[in-house]
């Protein structure tokens, strides 16, 4: 294939397409792979602002003979979303629900709309799109159509192909049309009109006629046949449905511009029955027996291996604890119009199979929240099994084969024998067993020639195995590059020839996603790793103890699942939610870091740590650590960013904000000389603006006010007796910078509540710091020095095992997470990590038995700090609030957007506020005047106060301390909390005047000296 003129192509796209045209190394690197084993660096990326602009982009590419790849969420597991082509990403702008017809139960959508967002908009009509793959939070409808996606709900609603009514398509050579079921009279009309469309329909009719018997005989009659083109949709008995024939073609035939979809009612009631079995094969054996007696909406399987991995990773423990006895389980979900009906369906099945609800191997739930948690645990299979903590990392490649459900048990036994033969240990086996579809990830050795050779032999054997069972190579994820080469083993030569003729009919020059499905690249070619992968192995500050002390392995945690592209729930990834940019997602950044390792000859990033492209992608990372907990493989982009920044700026000047914000603990201590003067200067007209420019701070931000009396000054003035570190009642209160110098009322409140609970409070007598601000700005050498100094000051308490109580979540998270990764061999760091506790953890788990928290009897809106969400969790806080009679609405609205220094830095304010407006600020504005607003993080409190909410957030310690004093006021109870006031207007203007006078005097003096010299 001749390479197109990329410079001319780029210029033409910029001139003619209303969209973002990106041929830079960063964009190309971010799109170089998907969720699969494959990697191909694209020619460039087009992000069209309209569907018409996307169509225009295809036209321009055709003029330059440039290959085209349409992309949605980029979660494909067979390599169909990566290619050396112009990638058209539809998701940023082309995501409109164009129309809904509730009576006909149809809708028309653009290709970039995300499934969950579509269903959210359809909810008002009590309708939904039926198929729901596990990536429903971020997969696009265009991608679902391209892959013929399914998910667990396909048990009730079928595959995507069964729910598509019409498609508006565009061929590479410019033919545009709406296609769907085409009766003979319509085909005659098209033929009479002549032209390219008539040629296409004549070709389709010829293929359907010539290969009629082959199609009827050669296509497996199973629920989950996804492999191959849907030639069966062209059969007379199937209405010669061209739209359905194109579903699942993976962008190799046409570009889908719009789609008309069939919809289904949202179930009114659901229940979940879980049955336990001795092993996964026994569970599979029982599937046909269950299906004889019921018609479930889902019939999912989970094996003991996955449950083991979840327990080792501490994931979904509540769901696991609700499982009945057994080492494998079938989850049978029912849907109906009444609660009685779903319950009766479950009990009828139990009677039919000779079980009862009280049996130890049976669990029944009609609690929707519990059901969703259990099904979500099953959905998490790909991420949970990707990086087993006790085993070799696993890969896709044979991750979604499907067989007739009645033969599933025997197929699994043979598949396990094949695993044993290739020494692939014991991969987890799970999936959509009600339709015979099996998910797994296998520890292929994809970095050595021997391992890749075994990979090839295994897939060939596995393909023959599934074909012998009358099954499909793919039951959900499509063929792409992973299975295209194997299609002959399933369909035979004649049908694969028919696939080639279909491809030639729509795309005669092989420009639409070439190398996938038809004339495929070898399935062991273009591997993301492969035996020729030779990445750099840089020395690092963080030691990455959970990644074999390897920065590379930490980067490779990302397997492309794409949960970081979700639009709601959890924390990850705030910058993606605000920008809708792949390179500003956790996955996009991980991809660029992978390219930075320069392991391939065509790596997009060639300048290593100095890369501007990697820096720019990481610049909008809020370092919220949401990905550390929300990413199914635990990518910690905040740590990777800090490591990158440390090397990127090594030996050269840093941004001004790294000195102003990164060294904040030092400036805070120096503010004690004259806090009033410092505050006035920071808020004085003109002077404050000049200071922000000098310090690299966003002009829209207001500087936080330093307290006149710091917590440490208050503590020393208190002159209380220092408790013995070895006294079991002693706790060491950590005096973080924020609770000490900005909001000392929090630390003072914590002292009061801890003492009320019977603890004896100590405070370090020497200056200490966790190093947070140096870590977040990548000044890791300084951070390690600060930590060493702090450990020395804490040594008596560490040796005595004294609990260390953290009030600021980000500082507590440093001791639990960052410090052990920076200094894993330091025993004092390990001791501190084990001894540090949150305020709530201390009171819930370690307070004397007779103590009860003061009663607040209020509602509260609670924003959990991202680092707490990621590292410490909030279970103890929820329990403490419950005991204090706080009716807490703990927000699930993501990051507040300020994120430490991020929201203060110049160039970040717009994204910071966009993140906040996604959920946190609107939720606070909706909070009733009499309710509390709680936020333990200084960043969260600052964002709420500066975000136009009219509210001030309190730390939980402050709320409890206020309750010690009696009843809170009925409206805006936070006004009782002490906060340092801003300087008066008079003082601010006076400071400006003095500064102006000093500047004028200095200028006059300089002029006089210059005159004397001349």
Could you explain how this protein is built, in words?
There is one protein chain. This protein has 1014 residues and is of the alpha/beta class. It is built from 45 helices and 24 strands. The strands form seven sheets. A five-stranded antiparallel beta sheet has the order 5-6-10-8-9. Helix 8 packs antiparallel against helix 20 (493-506) and helix 11 packs antiparallel against helix 17.
Summarize this structure as a short list of keywords or feature phrases.
5-stranded antiparallel beta sheet, 4-stranded mixed beta sheet, alpha/beta, 1014 residues
Q: Would you spell out the secondary-structure blueprint of this structure?
A:
Layout: H1 6-16, E1 19-22, H2 25-30, E2 44-48, H3 51-63, E3 68-71, E4 86-89, E5 97-101, E6 106-109, H4 115-122, E7 127-128, H5 141-147, H6 154-157, E8 164-170, E9 176-179, H7 184-193, H8 195-210, H9 212-218, H10 242-246, E10 255-262, E11 264-265, E12 269-277, H11 280-293, E13 298-303, H12 304-313, H13 317-321, E14 328-336, H14 339-353, E15 362-365, H15 368-379, H16 381-386, H17 408-421, E16 430-432, E17 437-439, H18 449-468, H19 487-491, H20 493-506, H21 551-555, H22 574-579, H23 586-596, H24 612-619, H25 626-630, H26 637-648, H27 656-660, H28 664-670, H29 675-683, H30 687-695, H31 711-718, E18 730-733, H32 737-741, H33 744-756, E19 760-762, H34 772-776, H35 780-800, E20 804-806, H36 809-822, H37 827-835, E21 836-838, H38 839-846, E22 858-863, H39 866-872, H40 875-883, E23 886-890, H41 909-917, H42 920-925, E24 932-935, H43 938-946, H44 956-964, H45 985-1013
Parallel strand pairs: 2-4, 3-4, 18-19, 18-20, 20-21, 22-23, 22-24
Antiparallel strand pairs: 1-2, 5-6, 6-10, 7-11, 8-9, 8-10, 12-14, 12-15, 13-14, 16-17
Helix pairs in contact: 1-3, 7-8, 8-20, 11-17, 17-18, 23-24, 31-33, 33-44, 35-37, 36-37, 36-39, 38-40
